[in-house]
């Protein structure tokens, strides 16, 4: 398929997804697939940091961010996004 590696999900809805898989002529799916997300609104996250990193020093802190669905990096042949480790991301704080 020409657009297998570059396929994008429709951006007309709030949140959309598209599964693009390769299949043999008899309909059996091959091992390769691409899962894309898209949408016209940002995904918003707002959670207490202490729920993610259970340390008293983070009591009262919050994690807040917005993310465009089409910017969520889902690797080929994986149905989950790239792992980010919040404790390691803030471990360098004084």
Explain the overall architecture.
The chain starts with 15 loop residues before the first strand and ends with a helix. It has one domain. The protein is built from two helices and four strands; from the N terminus they run βββαβα. The protein has a two-stranded antiparallel sheet. A two-stranded antiparallel ribbon has the order 3-4. The protein is elongated. The longest helix is centred in the C-terminal third of the chain and has 5 residues, at 86-90. It has helices spanning 49-52, 86-90; strands at residues 16-23, 29-38, 43-48, 62-67. It has 94 residues and is mainly beta. A hairpin with a 5-residue loop joins strand 1 (16-23) and strand 2 (29-38).
Strand order of the largest sheet: 1-2
Unreliable segments of 5+ consecutive residues: none
Q: State the total count of DSSP E strands.
A: 4
Span from first to last CA? Answer: 51 Å
Main pleated-sheet profile: 2 strands, antiparallel
Helix-strand sequence: EEEHEH
Name the average pLDDT. Answer: 76
β-sheet strand percentage: 25-35%
Rg is 18 Å
Molecular shape: elongated
Helix content estimate: under 10%
Q: Structural class given helices, strands, pairing?
A: mainly beta
Total count of domains: 1
Enumerate how many helices there are, as a single number: 2
State the oligomer.
Answer: single chain
């Amino acid at each position: 398929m020409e657009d297998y590696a570059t396929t994008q999900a429709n951006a007309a809805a709030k949140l959309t997804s598209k599964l693009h898989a390769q299949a043999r002529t008899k309909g059996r799916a091959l091992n390769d697939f691409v899962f894309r997300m898209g949408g016209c609104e940002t995904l918003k996250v707002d959670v207490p940091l202490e729920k993610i990193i259970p340390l008293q020093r983070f009591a009262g802190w919050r994690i807040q961010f917005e993310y465009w669905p089409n910017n969520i990096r889902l690797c080929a042949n994986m149905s989950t996004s790239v792992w980010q480790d919040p404790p390691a991301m803030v471990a360098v704080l004084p």
